[in-house]
Each structure stands twice: as structure tokens, then as C-alpha cells.
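Q: May I have one protein plus its fold?
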Amino acid sequence: GSNLWMAEVLESFDAIVTNAANSYRLQEECDVLSLSLAKTSCKIELLEFKAVMLASLRSLLPKTWNSDCEVAWTWLWENVERMLKANWGKPAVHQKALRRLYMSLDERQLACFRTGIYTTFFIKCSQ
């Protein structure tokens, strides 16, 4: 229960690490993770994940782990943490605003809105 959020971070961690060199993609991964974390009702302590991550890496890589590894992984996590904290509380606010927008549209406007979203989505996916 109380560490449900940690499972969400672990689920996203591969994509975060894979995209660490691409700041735009890293930001996207953190944005998606922040949406997942917003759905959990437990207290999120990002420092706990950092401690577990570093301890696990030290344990898994005892022969190759050194201070450079420590600095690099700490840098990555501190950047992820900064991006996540920048979104803290925003998903709930955005959800309320989107709900108000959708409720104000009639069926014709909703259909036009959906068509625009899908068209944009499929154009971007094909690139």
C-alpha cells in the first residue's frame, strides 16, 4: 500500500534511464510518471527511491561501481526528482479544467475536438 508509488517509478524507470541523454524525452517520461503518481493516494518520498536505487546499483555492480557512477546516477535522479516536483499537484488542477471545458462543449464541438486530437496524434505517430 504505502509504497505503491515506488512501483509506479520502477515501471517508468527503464524509459527514464533509456532517455536520459535526450532532455525532451526525459521530460516526457517524467510528465507521464507524474500523471501516474498523481493517481496514488499514498505519501511519496522521492528520497526513499534514490536511496533504494543507489543501494541496489552498488549491490548489483560491486566490481564496477565507483564515485563516478554514484555522481552520474545521483545527477540523473536529482533531475528526475526536479521534473516530478515541478508537476506536483498540477494533474488534479488540469483534470478539473479539462472537465469544465468538455462539459461546456456541445456534441458537434466535441466531435470536432476529438477529430483534431486524433488527427494530430496520428500525424505525430507516423513521423
Summary: The chain is about 80% helix and 0% strand. The radius of gyration is 19 Å.
